[in-house]
What does this fold into?
Amino acid sequence: MRNVSQVARELGINRVTAYSWAHRAGIFTSDDANERKKEFFRLRQQGVGRVEAARRLDIEAHQASDWDRGIHSFAKGRIYPDGRVVVYNQDEILANVRRPRTTWAQGEHIALERVEQVIDSRYLSLIEREHIKDLQVQGLSIRKIASFLGRPASTISRELRRNATSKGEYLPYTAHRFSVKRRFRPKTAKLAVPGPLQDYVRAKLKKRWSPEQIAHRLRKDHPDSEEMRVCPETIYQAIYVHAKGELKRELTAPLRRGRSGRKARKNAAKRTARFVDEMTPIAQRPSEVDDRVLSGHWEGDLITGTQNRSAVATLVERNTRYVVLGHLPDDHGAQSVRESLVRSLEPLPQQLRRTLIWDQGAEMAEHKAFTVCTNIDVYFCDPASPWQRGTNENTNGLLRQYLP
It folds into this structure.
Protein backbone atom coordinates (compact mmCIF):
# COMPACT_ATOMS: atom_id res chain seq x y z
CA MET A 1 0.00 0.00 0.00
CA ARG A 2 1.38 3.40 -0.95
CA ASN A 3 1.71 6.14 1.62
CA VAL A 4 -1.27 8.55 1.47
CA SER A 5 0.93 11.55 2.17
CA GLN A 6 3.24 10.55 -0.67
CA VAL A 7 0.31 10.19 -3.06
CA ALA A 8 -0.98 13.61 -2.00
CA ARG A 9 2.38 15.18 -2.79
CA GLU A 10 2.54 13.52 -6.21
CA LEU A 11 -0.98 14.70 -7.12
CA GLY A 12 -0.46 18.16 -5.66
CA ILE A 13 -3.47 18.00 -3.35
CA ASN A 14 -3.93 18.66 0.35
CA ARG A 15 -2.91 15.75 2.57
CA VAL A 16 -6.11 15.93 4.63
CA THR A 17 -8.17 15.80 1.43
CA ALA A 18 -6.21 12.75 0.28
CA TYR A 19 -6.89 10.97 3.58
CA SER A 20 -10.59 11.84 3.28
CA TRP A 21 -10.78 10.38 -0.23
CA ALA A 22 -8.90 7.27 0.89
CA HIS A 23 -11.33 6.70 3.75
CA ARG A 24 -14.34 7.10 1.45
CA ALA A 25 -12.87 4.64 -1.03
CA GLY A 26 -12.15 2.13 1.69
CA ILE A 27 -8.46 2.17 0.89
CA PHE A 28 -7.33 3.58 4.21
CA THR A 29 -10.06 2.60 6.63
CA SER A 30 -8.16 2.34 9.92
CA ASP A 31 -4.78 2.53 11.58
CA ASP A 32 -4.56 -1.26 11.37
CA ALA A 33 -4.11 -0.93 7.62
CA ASN A 34 -0.70 0.59 8.24
CA GLU A 35 1.74 -2.32 7.95
CA ARG A 36 4.60 -0.36 9.46
CA LYS A 37 2.51 0.29 12.55
CA LYS A 38 1.83 -3.45 12.91
CA GLU A 39 5.52 -4.16 12.52
CA PHE A 40 6.32 -1.43 15.05
CA PHE A 41 4.09 -3.02 17.71
CA ARG A 42 5.52 -6.44 16.94
CA LEU A 43 9.04 -5.16 17.60
CA ARG A 44 7.92 -3.44 20.80
CA GLN A 45 6.37 -6.69 22.07
CA GLN A 46 9.72 -8.39 21.45
CA GLY A 47 11.34 -5.89 23.81
CA VAL A 48 12.88 -3.60 21.18
CA GLY A 49 13.12 0.00 22.38
CA ARG A 50 11.02 2.74 20.81
CA VAL A 51 13.98 4.59 19.30
CA GLU A 52 15.48 1.41 17.84
CA ALA A 53 12.12 0.26 16.42
CA ALA A 54 11.57 3.65 14.80
CA ARG A 55 15.07 3.55 13.30
CA ARG A 56 14.57 0.07 11.83
CA LEU A 57 11.28 1.04 10.21
CA ASP A 58 12.37 4.55 9.19
CA ILE A 59 9.61 6.18 11.24
CA GLU A 60 9.66 9.72 12.57
CA ALA A 61 10.38 9.88 16.31
CA HIS A 62 7.17 11.79 17.10
CA GLN A 63 5.10 9.26 15.10
CA ALA A 64 6.64 6.33 16.98
CA SER A 65 5.98 8.13 20.27
CA ASP A 66 2.31 8.65 19.39
CA TRP A 67 1.89 5.02 18.39
CA ASP A 68 3.53 3.82 21.57
CA ARG A 69 1.29 6.02 23.71
CA GLY A 70 -1.90 5.18 21.78
CA ILE A 71 -2.45 8.74 20.57
CA HIS A 72 -4.57 9.40 17.49
CA SER A 73 -3.88 12.66 15.61
CA PHE A 74 -6.45 14.50 13.55
CA ALA A 75 -6.59 17.86 11.78
CA LYS A 76 -7.66 19.89 14.82
CA GLY A 77 -5.79 18.14 17.59
CA ARG A 78 -5.06 14.83 19.27
CA ILE A 79 -7.07 12.12 21.03
CA TYR A 80 -5.47 10.20 23.89
CA PRO A 81 -6.33 6.58 24.77
CA ASP A 82 -8.18 7.55 27.96
CA GLY A 83 -10.49 9.89 26.04
CA ARG A 84 -8.58 13.10 26.73
CA VAL A 85 -8.82 15.49 23.79
CA VAL A 86 -6.37 18.29 22.94
CA VAL A 87 -7.82 20.80 20.48
CA TYR A 88 -5.62 23.46 18.91
CA ASN A 89 -6.75 27.05 18.52
CA GLN A 90 -7.74 27.45 14.87
CA ASP A 91 -6.79 31.16 14.69
CA GLU A 92 -3.32 30.42 15.99
CA ILE A 93 -2.93 27.45 13.64
CA LEU A 94 -3.49 29.79 10.72
CA ALA A 95 -0.77 32.03 12.07
CA ASN A 96 1.53 28.96 12.46
CA VAL A 97 1.55 29.50 16.22
CA ARG A 98 0.22 26.82 18.53
CA ARG A 99 -1.16 28.03 21.83
CA PRO A 100 -0.03 26.50 25.14
CA ARG A 101 -1.74 23.14 25.21
CA THR A 102 -4.29 22.18 27.82
CA THR A 103 -5.42 18.72 28.74
CA TRP A 104 -8.77 17.51 30.03
CA ALA A 105 -8.68 14.91 32.77
CA GLN A 106 -11.27 13.97 35.37
CA GLY A 107 -13.28 17.15 34.85
CA GLU A 108 -10.38 19.61 35.22
CA HIS A 109 -8.10 21.45 32.81
CA ILE A 110 -4.40 20.99 33.53
CA ALA A 111 -1.62 22.66 31.55
CA LEU A 112 0.66 20.07 29.95
CA GLU A 113 3.67 22.15 30.99
CA ARG A 114 2.65 21.50 34.58
CA VAL A 115 2.10 17.81 33.93
CA GLU A 116 5.58 17.39 32.43
CA GLN A 117 7.35 19.52 35.07
CA VAL A 118 9.99 17.63 37.09
CA ILE A 119 9.50 18.67 40.72
CA ASP A 120 11.90 16.50 42.67
CA SER A 121 13.83 13.27 42.22
CA ARG A 122 11.77 11.58 44.94
CA TYR A 123 8.74 11.64 42.63
CA LEU A 124 8.51 9.22 39.73
CA SER A 125 9.21 11.09 36.50
CA LEU A 126 7.48 10.62 33.16
CA ILE A 127 10.56 8.86 31.77
CA GLU A 128 10.56 6.42 34.70
CA ARG A 129 6.90 5.65 34.10
CA GLU A 130 7.67 4.89 30.46
CA HIS A 131 10.43 2.53 31.65
CA ILE A 132 7.95 0.83 34.00
CA LYS A 133 5.58 0.23 31.07
CA ASP A 134 8.39 -1.11 28.85
CA LEU A 135 9.69 -3.45 31.55
CA GLN A 136 6.16 -4.59 32.38
CA VAL A 137 5.59 -5.49 28.72
CA GLN A 138 8.78 -7.58 28.85
CA GLY A 139 7.27 -9.58 31.71
CA LEU A 140 9.61 -8.45 34.49
CA SER A 141 8.45 -8.74 38.09
CA ILE A 142 7.83 -5.73 40.31
CA ARG A 143 11.07 -6.32 42.23
CA LYS A 144 13.13 -6.54 39.04
CA ILE A 145 11.53 -3.35 37.71
CA ALA A 146 12.30 -1.63 41.03
CA SER A 147 15.90 -2.85 40.91
CA PHE A 148 16.31 -1.60 37.35
CA LEU A 149 15.03 1.88 38.28
CA GLY A 150 16.75 2.05 41.65
CA ARG A 151 13.43 2.43 43.46
CA PRO A 152 11.83 0.51 46.35
CA ALA A 153 9.56 -2.34 45.24
CA SER A 154 6.71 -0.76 47.24
CA THR A 155 6.95 2.37 45.07
CA ILE A 156 6.47 0.36 41.87
CA SER A 157 3.69 -1.74 43.40
CA ARG A 158 1.84 1.36 44.59
CA GLU A 159 2.33 3.06 41.22
CA LEU A 160 0.83 0.14 39.28
CA ARG A 161 -2.09 -0.12 41.72
CA ARG A 162 -3.03 3.55 42.13
CA ASN A 163 -2.40 4.98 38.68
CA ALA A 164 -3.84 2.29 36.44
CA THR A 165 -6.87 3.02 34.24
CA SER A 166 -10.37 1.90 35.10
CA LYS A 167 -9.74 -1.22 32.97
CA GLY A 168 -6.64 -2.09 34.99
CA GLU A 169 -4.20 -1.15 32.21
CA TYR A 170 -1.09 0.88 33.06
CA LEU A 171 -0.47 3.78 30.64
CA PRO A 172 2.55 5.98 31.45
CA TYR A 173 1.08 9.36 30.44
CA THR A 174 -2.27 8.66 32.05
CA ALA A 175 -0.53 7.49 35.24
CA HIS A 176 1.64 10.60 35.29
CA ARG A 177 -1.38 12.86 34.89
CA PHE A 178 -3.21 11.05 37.70
CA SER A 179 -0.27 11.61 40.03
CA VAL A 180 -0.07 15.32 39.13
CA LYS A 181 -3.78 15.83 39.77
CA ARG A 182 -3.44 14.10 43.12
CA ARG A 183 -0.86 16.70 44.15
CA PHE A 184 -3.34 19.57 43.72
CA ARG A 185 -4.39 20.59 47.23
CA PRO A 186 -5.74 24.13 46.95
CA LYS A 187 -6.49 25.69 50.32
CA THR A 188 -6.54 29.11 51.95
CA ALA A 189 -3.22 30.27 53.38
CA LYS A 190 -3.17 30.03 57.17
CA LEU A 191 -2.26 33.68 57.77
CA ALA A 192 -4.65 34.96 55.09
CA VAL A 193 -7.59 34.33 57.44
CA PRO A 194 -8.26 37.21 59.90
CA GLY A 195 -8.03 36.12 63.52
CA PRO A 196 -5.82 35.92 66.62
CA LEU A 197 -2.94 34.18 64.79
CA GLN A 198 -2.75 36.83 62.08
CA ASP A 199 -2.96 39.65 64.66
CA TYR A 200 -0.20 38.06 66.78
CA VAL A 201 2.19 37.63 63.82
CA ARG A 202 1.58 41.15 62.51
CA ALA A 203 2.14 42.69 65.96
CA LYS A 204 5.45 40.85 66.44
CA LEU A 205 6.63 41.76 62.94
CA LYS A 206 6.05 45.44 63.77
CA LYS A 207 8.34 44.94 66.77
CA ARG A 208 11.00 43.69 64.33
CA TRP A 209 10.84 40.09 65.45
CA SER A 210 12.08 37.55 62.95
CA PRO A 211 9.73 34.82 61.67
CA GLU A 212 11.84 32.26 63.54
CA GLN A 213 11.40 34.12 66.81
CA ILE A 214 7.66 34.46 66.26
CA ALA A 215 7.21 30.75 65.46
CA HIS A 216 9.08 29.65 68.61
CA ARG A 217 7.44 32.24 70.87
CA LEU A 218 3.95 31.12 69.83
CA ARG A 219 4.49 27.78 71.54
CA LYS A 220 5.43 29.47 74.81
CA ASP A 221 2.67 32.07 74.78
CA HIS A 222 -0.06 29.62 73.67
CA PRO A 223 1.05 26.14 74.84
CA ASP A 224 -2.48 24.67 74.81
CA SER A 225 -3.78 26.14 71.56
CA GLU A 226 -2.99 24.10 68.44
CA GLU A 227 -4.58 26.83 66.30
CA MET A 228 -1.82 29.25 67.38
CA ARG A 229 0.92 27.41 65.52
CA VAL A 230 2.81 28.53 62.42
CA CYS A 231 6.22 27.74 60.96
CA PRO A 232 8.71 30.42 59.81
CA GLU A 233 8.25 29.54 56.13
CA THR A 234 4.49 30.15 56.37
CA ILE A 235 5.21 33.64 57.71
CA TYR A 236 7.66 34.33 54.89
CA GLN A 237 5.07 33.09 52.38
CA ALA A 238 2.45 35.41 53.88
CA ILE A 239 4.82 38.36 53.49
CA TYR A 240 6.36 37.72 50.09
CA VAL A 241 3.61 35.80 48.27
CA HIS A 242 0.19 36.63 49.67
CA ALA A 243 0.67 40.22 50.87
CA LYS A 244 0.10 42.90 48.24
CA GLY A 245 0.52 46.68 47.97
CA GLU A 246 0.54 48.65 51.18
CA LEU A 247 0.26 45.54 53.37
CA LYS A 248 3.39 44.09 51.75
CA ARG A 249 5.35 47.31 52.32
CA GLU A 250 4.13 47.37 55.92
CA LEU A 251 5.28 43.82 56.61
CA THR A 252 8.60 43.81 54.74
CA ALA A 253 9.89 47.05 56.29
CA PRO A 254 10.49 45.57 59.80
CA LEU A 255 12.33 42.50 58.46
CA ARG A 256 16.02 42.31 59.26
CA ARG A 257 17.02 42.31 55.58
CA GLY A 258 14.30 44.73 54.55
CA ARG A 259 13.85 43.04 51.17
CA SER A 260 10.62 43.43 49.25
CA GLY A 261 11.18 40.05 47.57
CA ARG A 262 12.95 36.80 48.32
CA LYS A 263 16.49 36.36 47.11
CA ALA A 264 16.81 33.48 44.70
CA ARG A 265 19.07 30.67 45.81
CA LYS A 266 20.95 28.83 43.09
CA ASN A 267 21.15 25.08 43.08
CA ALA A 268 24.80 24.06 43.46
CA ALA A 269 24.47 21.76 40.46
CA LYS A 270 23.15 24.62 38.31
CA ARG A 271 25.60 27.33 39.27
CA THR A 272 27.51 29.13 36.57
CA ALA A 273 30.96 27.65 36.04
CA ARG A 274 33.71 29.55 37.84
CA PHE A 275 35.99 29.56 34.80
CA VAL A 276 35.33 29.93 31.10
CA ASP A 277 37.69 27.02 30.41
CA GLU A 278 36.41 23.77 31.86
CA MET A 279 38.19 22.60 35.01
CA THR A 280 39.69 19.12 35.31
CA PRO A 281 38.85 17.70 38.78
CA ILE A 282 41.45 16.09 41.00
CA ALA A 283 39.66 12.74 40.63
CA GLN A 284 41.00 12.54 37.06
CA ARG A 285 44.61 13.11 38.12
CA PRO A 286 46.96 10.16 37.28
CA SER A 287 47.22 7.60 40.07
CA GLU A 288 51.03 7.79 39.95
CA VAL A 289 50.83 11.20 41.68
CA ASP A 290 49.60 9.62 44.92
CA ASP A 291 52.71 7.42 45.22
CA ARG A 292 55.12 10.40 45.39
CA VAL A 293 57.70 8.38 43.43
CA LEU A 294 58.05 10.47 40.27
CA SER A 295 59.14 14.08 40.52
CA GLY A 296 57.41 16.83 38.62
CA HIS A 297 54.00 16.82 40.34
CA TRP A 298 53.31 20.16 42.04
CA GLU A 299 50.83 21.68 44.47
CA GLY A 300 50.20 25.41 44.40
CA ASP A 301 48.34 28.29 46.05
CA LEU A 302 48.60 31.99 46.91
CA ILE A 303 49.78 33.53 50.18
CA THR A 304 48.06 36.89 50.59
CA GLY A 305 49.01 39.78 52.84
CA THR A 306 46.93 42.21 54.88
CA GLN A 307 43.56 42.96 53.22
CA ASN A 308 44.76 41.01 50.16
CA ARG A 309 46.88 43.98 49.05
CA SER A 310 49.93 41.77 48.36
CA ALA A 311 50.43 38.14 47.41
CA VAL A 312 53.03 35.47 46.59
CA ALA A 313 52.42 32.36 44.49
CA THR A 314 53.80 29.21 46.13
CA LEU A 315 54.62 25.92 44.43
CA VAL A 316 55.91 22.80 46.19
CA GLU A 317 56.99 19.57 44.47
CA ARG A 318 55.33 16.54 46.07
CA ASN A 319 58.30 14.17 45.94
CA THR A 320 61.31 16.37 46.81
CA ARG A 321 59.37 19.15 48.64
CA TYR A 322 61.27 21.63 46.49
CA VAL A 323 59.63 25.06 46.81
CA VAL A 324 59.27 27.73 44.11
CA LEU A 325 57.89 31.20 44.83
CA GLY A 326 56.25 33.40 42.20
CA HIS A 327 56.74 37.15 42.48
CA LEU A 328 53.52 39.24 42.21
CA PRO A 329 54.58 42.89 42.66
CA ASP A 330 51.52 44.60 41.16
CA ASP A 331 48.41 42.44 41.57
CA HIS A 332 47.38 38.82 41.87
CA GLY A 333 44.79 38.53 39.10
CA ALA A 334 44.58 35.57 36.74
CA GLN A 335 46.90 37.04 34.11
CA SER A 336 49.57 38.11 36.61
CA VAL A 337 49.51 34.73 38.35
CA ARG A 338 49.84 32.88 35.04
CA GLU A 339 52.82 35.00 33.93
CA SER A 340 54.51 34.65 37.32
CA LEU A 341 54.15 30.85 37.37
CA VAL A 342 55.39 30.52 33.81
CA ARG A 343 58.51 32.58 34.64
CA SER A 344 59.14 30.58 37.82
CA LEU A 345 58.89 27.15 36.16
CA GLU A 346 60.59 28.01 32.87
CA PRO A 347 64.15 27.08 34.03
CA LEU A 348 63.07 23.58 35.09
CA PRO A 349 63.55 20.59 32.70
CA GLN A 350 60.52 18.88 31.22
CA GLN A 351 60.92 15.90 33.58
CA LEU A 352 60.04 18.19 36.47
CA ARG A 353 56.95 19.62 34.76
CA ARG A 354 54.12 17.07 34.85
CA THR A 355 51.03 18.14 36.83
CA LEU A 356 49.85 20.94 39.10
CA ILE A 357 47.04 20.78 41.67
CA TRP A 358 45.36 24.06 42.68
CA ASP A 359 42.22 25.10 44.55
CA GLN A 360 39.29 26.69 42.74
CA GLY A 361 40.47 30.25 43.26
CA ALA A 362 39.78 32.80 40.53
CA GLU A 363 43.52 33.50 40.20
CA MET A 364 43.86 30.27 38.16
CA ALA A 365 41.21 31.22 35.59
CA GLU A 366 43.83 31.12 32.80
CA HIS A 367 44.85 27.54 33.55
CA LYS A 368 44.51 26.47 29.92
CA ALA A 369 46.94 29.18 28.79
CA PHE A 370 49.31 28.10 31.59
CA THR A 371 49.18 24.49 30.33
CA VAL A 372 49.98 25.61 26.78
CA CYS A 373 53.04 27.61 27.96
CA THR A 374 54.47 25.01 30.38
CA ASN A 375 53.03 21.68 29.21
CA ILE A 376 51.85 21.10 32.80
CA ASP A 377 48.35 19.69 33.26
CA VAL A 378 46.35 21.56 35.92
CA TYR A 379 43.90 19.73 38.21
CA PHE A 380 41.55 21.39 40.70
CA CYS A 381 40.63 20.36 44.24
CA ASP A 382 37.04 19.82 45.26
CA PRO A 383 35.35 22.85 46.90
CA ALA A 384 36.39 23.43 50.53
CA SER A 385 38.91 20.55 50.44
CA PRO A 386 42.35 22.04 51.26
CA TRP A 387 43.62 18.67 52.50
CA GLN A 388 43.75 17.49 48.87
CA ARG A 389 46.87 19.65 48.54
CA GLY A 390 48.11 19.21 52.09
CA THR A 391 51.83 19.48 51.26
CA ASN A 392 51.32 22.99 49.92
CA GLU A 393 49.15 23.98 52.91
CA ASN A 394 51.86 22.83 55.32
CA THR A 395 54.55 24.64 53.33
CA ASN A 396 52.52 27.86 53.34
CA GLY A 397 52.28 27.67 57.11
CA LEU A 398 56.07 27.44 57.37
CA LEU A 399 56.54 30.28 54.89
CA ARG A 400 54.41 32.55 57.09
CA GLN A 401 57.32 32.65 59.53
CA TYR A 402 59.40 34.41 56.90
CA LEU A 403 56.64 36.21 54.97
CA PRO A 404 54.41 37.54 57.78
